[in-house]
Design goal:
Layout (H helix, E strand, L loop, with lengths): L5 H9 L18 E3 L3 H8 L10 E4 L4 E7 L5 E8 L17 E3 L10 H6 L1 E6 L1 E6 L6 E7 L5 E11 L5 E11 L10 E3 L7 H5 L21 E6 L16 E6 L1
Length: 254
Amino acid sequence: MADKSFQRLTERAHFALYMPAGACYCQYMCSRFTLISDPEAIRATFGYANQPNFPPRHNIAPTQPIAIVRVGGNGARELVLVRWGLVPSWVKDPQEFSTIINARSETASEKPSFRAAMRHRRCLIPADGFIEWTGQKGSKRPFFIKRGDQGLLAFAGLWEHWQGADGSEIESAVILTTQANATVSPLHNRMPVILNPEQFDAWLDCKRLAPDDVAEFLGPAEDDLLEAVEVHPRINNPANDTPDILEPLQGTLL
């Protein structure tokens, strides 16, 4: 049975959908990703205790709710929905704060926006793949980057909790990035940090392990892990969220 509290989490995350973004996301690395696997397959991979049901997402865009896996108050992993675009706790007005969807893993421990989260609030971000573009402005070609074996990906992420003076709350997250591997580098010089299941426990263990203890996880994925396939330009519009936008164009494997 689905976790009844997940509906409340969904409602709180959707509050962030209507906040002004103030950014053109095409300029960012990894500004779209997907989560289309069956919820039970995601739960089996990430090992969280609650049982949420959620629809497949073919075109997740900044400021939208995303699923993250973190350690809950009872010490068990939980899946929750948060806003994609980190809002640090010290921000006075989130509507006037620039949307931060990615953070450089090499310097996250030093930056005021990420330092506390890197120490105390690390998370996993489930995904089936992400989108990168190549080409000139106005004629950019989107590529869907996914595992060659069609398995799930775990992006390294950070999450934050913001509370306003009026009692309003926002939970948000950011994806950590690293140098691109051989598959991604023809499209962009950066890529998400992708964690292996053997690294999940250590990455989430913020009580015992400091950022320096998990720094070795933050390199690029193995060159043979991913493949890049050109998909339809309809994916450029975040309003399009249907399976057909991920169908490969014939003969476009990168």
